[in-house]
Amino acid sequence: MTDRIFNFNAGPAVLPLDILKQAQAELLNYRDTGMSILEISHRSKPYEVIHQEAEADMKALLGLGDNYRVLFVQGGGSLQFAMVPMNYLPAGRIADYILTGSWSEKALQEAKLLGQTHVAATTAGEGYRRIPSLQEIKLSDKPAYVHITSNNTIYGTQWREFPNFGDIPLMADMSSDMLSRPFDAKKFALIYAGAQKNLGPAGVTIVIIRKDLLDECPPTIPTMLRYDTYAKNDSMYNTPPCFSVYIVHLVLQWLRKNGGLAAMEKHNQEKAAFIYRQIDQSGGFYRGHAEPDSRSLMNITFRLPNEELEGAFVKEAVQAGLGGLKGYRTVGGIRASVYNAMSKEGCLALAAFMDEFRKKNS
Ligand SMILES: *Cc1c(COP(=O)(O)O)cnc(C)c1O
User: Which residues carry this modification: N6-(pyridoxal phosphate)lysine (predicted)?
Assistant: First the structure.
């Protein structure tokens, strides 16, 4: 394969081509340093600029002020499953989790290792086809925090409207839809997102945290697992994942240059509609996993009449230049991940392929 394909992988996932080209052009000699960004100190001026601009750009995109910090942490979204309760679930308190898929289950599992938990709502019994309504959420008495997963990468569902629990800290795993649309980030005490879905390469996790929470990190847990360590040291207590932060910085600038989150939402709605329309107009040949009002704009999941056809679909799609469409094993079928960097052209190509495949096989 010599040409780039349309890449529908769930993560690591497609990045904007212009950014890859810029990284390639700058790789051997970063801005006249005579060194690669891969080779320079994280304490050097050129890296410091990248790191600080990335924090500032992230806050600007989210409309956050001085009472928030942006931290760059390693260990993926999965380490955050543990860091959140380690820091914010003290003995004698209960943390509430809303279960909307496999990643929220994993987050809960870690919290259970560390303290008391309560499931405030779950749609597990319905195969995680939908997001619970706000009326279905039953909180425990004064929970330490409430944890949600904004977009369910595996099942293909996404919160439309975020809940509001007043003073109770709301914490969210936004690994697979961070910066895909505007939302009121000030509603959240803490947001985390592994970069490799919608923000950049693997290796860095973005944590957005309200500053008052930094005073609550227990001094008894290891230094590298405390959020205040990252905040006090500008995420440079130890060596940060410099190259990953560098790419995230380029992605943030690309987002700002292209109209920010409102423009991105419009782009994502338009893209997803091409594919959902194929599902809805297929007369039952394609069956969407998510209920229509919970559909994700990032991960589109659907089944075909049988597994044989699903296998043929994935195989023939590859031949048509459409990669990464095989669904996750628990849901089966097809998953098209159409993150910010997926072009309209890619989604149109997939829609055309779906149309043709259905006509040929039904
Ligand atoms: C991929 C994913 C994770 C896990 O991320 P890692 O960086 O691999 O630990 C967590 N939450 C969601 C919603 C994800 O999509």
Answer: 197
Q: Does 171 reside within a domain?
A: yes
Nearest-CA residue for atom 10 of ligand 1: 77
Give the Cα separation of 151 and 220 in Å (integer).
Answer: 33
Query: Do 49 and 145 fall into the same domain?
Result: yes
- Banded pLDDT at 2 (limits 50, 70, 90): low
Which ligand 1 atom is at minimum distance from the Cα of 80?
9
Q: Which atom of ligand 1 is nearest to the CA of 150?
A: 13
Whether 1 has a pLDDT exceeding 90, the answer reads no
Asked whether residue 11 is assigned to any structural domain, the reply reads no
Atom of ligand 1 nearest to the CA of 153: 15
Tens of pLDDT, residue by residue over 97-114, are 999 999 999 999 999 999
pLDDT at 318: 97
The answer to whether residue 3 sits within a structural domain is: no
Sign of CA dihedral 192, 196, 199, 200: positive
Q: Report CA(285)–ligand 1 centroid distance (Å).
A: 31
Q: Which residues constitute the domain of residue 338?
A: 260-361
152 CA distance to ligand 1 centroid (A)? 10
Other beta carbons less than 10 A from residue 134's beta carbon: 11
Give the C-alpha separation, 216 to 244, whole Å: 29
Residues 170 and 284 in one domain: no
Ligand 1 centroid from CA 103, angstroms: 7
Q: Which of 57, 96, 159, 173 is catalytic?
A: 173
173 belongs to the catalytic site: yes
Kindly report, residue by residue over 13-52, the tens digit of the pLDDT.
999 999 999 999 999 999 999 999 999 999 999 999 999 9
Number of domains in the chain: 2
